[in-house]
């Protein structure tokens, strides 16, 4: 966090720019290091979702091979297990030994019901938001604090982007020297060791870390919400985006679909002779038998698993089948007639350019684009970020002057290149939470903190040229 100026003979303009970048690098690290450790840890766990989820669900996800009951009967068993629920999607079994997975909607929630397809025994009922990897997902993306947590994580991610960009400038090899930047010097004492560990880790992982941070922004409440608005204008008439901007938007979408399905269920029930309102929560619409005709047609299409077959909803007037593969470029979707004929097939390549860019970014972010190499790169980056945080704290603790925070002192009368100021402005506009918080820090420092002698000395605001 505290690199030393390379040469006292640098021109004043370059020296002032270096000091300004160094100071913002220090502030960025001071704020975001705890969040970086948190994001790296939770992200590291989430990278192993394909390996961990089957282990966590092995108690109720596998069955002994036997002749299966019709899928509509499996759906009916799942709906009975969650009174008042409606069908959200039936997950096509990946193997004859796989338990049937039925997603049912209840209010603003999705519930996953595991059913033995042979005897229709309910093996497990789990709220989607209670599944381990879903909890990790929300811990990673919003600290389980909803929209406020999402904005806090976005703010931390934005400052981390600033920290990495400024760090690359500060530690970039100069004068042809690669020792201490491309590889650490291990025999020159602890001070050099920690300095080199910080520089080398940052240089090797910054590019992929920046890619991960940028690819995570579409999920955030603020930046992702603005992107959604842009997408609605740019990709008008395209399919609904297949990523959410936080748990609040996800719950609202689920609730709307569940409410529509419940209303259709009620209307169907009222049209059936002899059925009153009290029968509706326990009944299963007879046309769920449509799914039995759809499964053979969907299976022949060989969509990437898992494949979800869903009834008509607010987004679709027909039955649909879609791949929910973690590797998003492999996803395809089908629109189906009740007799099983394919009305339409859409692939990832047919999505708008913006959706494809974000899809690739999300797949990389989750380690799914080119496994296992993508997972290995993710692990390398997460461990590198942890190393950066640890070495930064050690360097700061060992180097900080007594009685001060240790921030690089501000030079009175310093001049900064216009290009540098413009770059910071552009970065602040692209990341509005970063721009607003940088402006706030600058105003507080300039208007208030300089007026208090002790604070001025503690923050390094009083050094003259």
TrEMBL record:
Membrane-spanning segments: 24-48, 152-172, 192-214, 376-397, 417-444
Keyword Transmembrane helix carried by entry: yes
Keywords on record: Membrane, Transmembrane, Transmembrane helix
Statement: the UniProt record of this protein carries the keyword tRNA processing: no
Pfam families on file: PepSY_TM
Highest rank taxon of the organism: Bacteria
InterPro entries in the cross-refs: PepSY-ass_TM
Protein name stated in the entry: PepSY domain-containing protein
Organism name: Dyella acidiphila
Organism ancestry: Bacteria, Pseudomonadati, Pseudomonadota, Gammaproteobacteria, Lysobacterales
